[in-house]
Design brief:
Elements lengths: L6 H4 L1 H15 L5 H15 L2 H13 L4 H6 L11 H14 L1 H4 L3 H10 L2 H23 L6
């Protein structure tokens, strides 16, 4: 598979807006280790090799264990994730697969039990942002370096 276009050079203004959104997400209330797990899980669902490569490296740098990284795609079947992480991962899957899930009430109930209203919005914006990055990277075939 080969790259299609470099979206950074094709539309610098659009990418400036995406980078500003990404910077804002990094300043929101969601703790960075959890944010990286969410980014990874969404990127797994979307099949984004570039984002998987980048966020796996970032998670490792942040101290994430290899065991948890290796079992993230099966997080429901492991004891390795906290209730807060499980709620975030369920919500990430629900919003990423929204045409199938319609943001299921059971996923929202988990979210509501673990996150304040502001955190719910912050997490949802983070999920929307990584989905946007995935769509750019997959659509234009951005390759890991």
């Amino acid at each position: 598979m080969s790259a299609r276009i470099d979206f950074y050079t094709a539309s610098p203004d659009a990418m400036k807006a995406m980078l500003a959104l990404e910077a804002a997400v990094g300043k929101l209330s969601i703790e960075l280790p959890l944010l990286e797990l969410v980014r990874l899980r969404v990127s797994q669902i979307n099949g984004c090799a570039f984002c998987l490569d980048m966020h796996t490296a970032d998670a490792r740098k942040g101290g994430e264990s290899e065991r948890r990284l290796c079992t993230l795609s099966a997080w429901r079947e492991t004891p390795f994730f906290t209730p807060r992480e499980r709620a975030a991962l369920a919500w990430a899957e629900s919003l990423t697969l929204i045409s199938q899930t319609h943001a299921a009430d059971e996923d929202y109930a988990l979210l509501n039990d673990q996150f304040s209203p502001a955190e719910q919005v912050d997490l949802s914006v983070a999920i929307a942002t990584i989905n946007s990055w995935n769509r750019l990277a997959v659509g234009f075939r951005k390759m890991p370096k």
